[in-house]
Design goal:
Elements lengths: L11 H12 L9 H8 L3 H13 L3 E4 L3 E4 L1 H23 L8 H8 L5 H10 L25 E2 L8 E7 L4 H9 L7 E6 L7 E5 L2 E5 L1 H4 L2 E5 L2
Antiparallel strand pairs: 1-2, 3-8, 4-5, 4-8, 5-6, 6-7
Helix pairs in contact: 1-4, 2-3, 4-5
Amino acid sequence: MVEVARRSTFTQSQEDYLKALYHLHGDTRPVPTRELAQRLGISSPSVSEMVNRLEAQGLVEHDRYRGQQLTREGRKVALELVRHHRLLEMFLVQVLGYSWDEVHEEAERLEHVISERMEQRIFDLLGRPELDPHGHAIPSLTGKVRPISDRPLSECRAGESVVVQGVSDDDAATLRELERRHLLPGTRIEVLAASEFEGPIEVRIKGRREQIPLGLARAIFVAVAR
């Protein structure tokens, strides 16, 4: 039986691999090496080398043909990083006055170094939040993650009424454009016309009609409005 190392013994690179696997749903399915390499922006051979190390530590399971998947212990480490990241984003916005398009890169750096004591202090200071500024669920200490819709606005049909649950935080320019258009978590949207031939989506937001480029609509995740 492989003995799993303590998180403090992992390198930042190893933690990044585990978190990337989690974001690619690698806790529920094998993720192909090429897909993981694309997410991390590195070569497939480099991914394979790191995966071998993580497998030896009991953090991933690797199948030559299907890819790699997080073990239970690997998922725990990944969720701890995700929790750090999303709490830090909330702290940067609510306490330090950062805008929501500035916090992702800062949190990427800080998530690897804060202690569990600091994490708990931040959590309590913020009033024990369940969501980060972009609408993403903050994992609990026990590893529970509140279900959030991952259906993009780009897939909605004419006549649907939806509410924004979250947005992609990968690109700062996209976040600034979403804020400019008031497409924030909690915003209600009425879809007037779906995209045709990669064209924009026509919607009504707070009584005003506007067209949302398809690329931007793909960065908005919605649920049916109640």
